[in-house]
Amino acid sequence: MIEYKGVVSCDGKNSSRELFRIASAGPADGKEAVWPFMGTVILVTSGKGGVGKSTLSALLGQAFSTLGKRTLIVELDAGLRCLDLFLGFGEDVVFNLADVFSGTCGAADAMIRVPSFEGLYVLPAPARADKPIPAERLAQACRSLSSAFDLVLVDAPAGVGPLVRAAASAADRALIVTGADPLSSRDAYVTKELLTEAGCTDCRLVINRVAPVGRTRKKLPDLDQIIDRAKVRLIGVLPESEQIRSSLLQGKPLPPESPEQQIFSAIAARLLGRNIPLIISEKSLQRRIYK
Ligand SMILES: Nc1ncnc2c1ncn2[C@@H]1O[C@H](COP(=O)(O)OP(=O)(O)OP(=O)(O)O)[C@@H](O)[C@H]1O
Ligand SMILES: [Mg+2]
Questions:
Q1: What homologous superfamily is domain 16-287 in, according to CATH?
Q2: What is the average pLDDT value for the chain, to the nearest integer?
């Protein structure tokens, strides 16, 4: 079933219909995909910094929890942690991932249960960069954590350093986040190549902060071009959204019925193997919603 309603140009290798088909991430015969996802490790990564990895990790974690999946978010960004604020549990952090590796506490002691979300936990990054996370032990740790959860989302620091390569070697899939600009999408391509070398071959692209451009401010950036440059299959498009920004700043969930919430639910459902169409229409453009 193709419900794509134009706006993105149709030329190039990733035609709009192709873009739609890719985004649905289901099998070609229209049946629901049945993918094994118990204990799936998903690495959330990007080439460029600040493009929305932690945003996606936090809000996707909430969406998985709402779908009834036990989910753990492992935050790797030592010294730059933010999930405690994004998910509203800042006061509760006692231990962190570095403490687990140093043997100061067990993994369960360091995990924080996210308020209001059943089965959603975070293993926070250390607040200081001088508390190292040993890359050589990370892959084993991710695999072992995945036995206790339906999903383990690994919120990576920018780039493909030793920690990200280690996480990639344990990941079943990577989500590569890009902005809707040439530099960020080219970095997404380089990231995909490096992740593949590290052993993670199943990559999907999330284009974030898409906003209308042009003098009339009625045109979308050319998403086909971004996908062509990144050479990664699309799984979701997120709008530039005041709702997303303010929810994260206040550490509050997105309103349950908000269009933004529906976008994250759709991405989560695609990752669980369901065939959910990506619809970008004139109406959604005006409302900045790309479900
Ligand atoms: N779709 C969006 N709409 C509005 N603001 C957004 C959106 N996505 C991300 N942001 C904002 O952009 C900022 C950076 O996002 P985020 O921290 O998720 O990026 P990151 O890729 O994790 O950064 P880093 O590379 O430092 O880890 C945050 O303040 C966040 O609120
Ligand atoms: Mg981050």
A1: P-loop containing nucleotide triphosphate hydrolases (3.40.50.300)
A2: 84
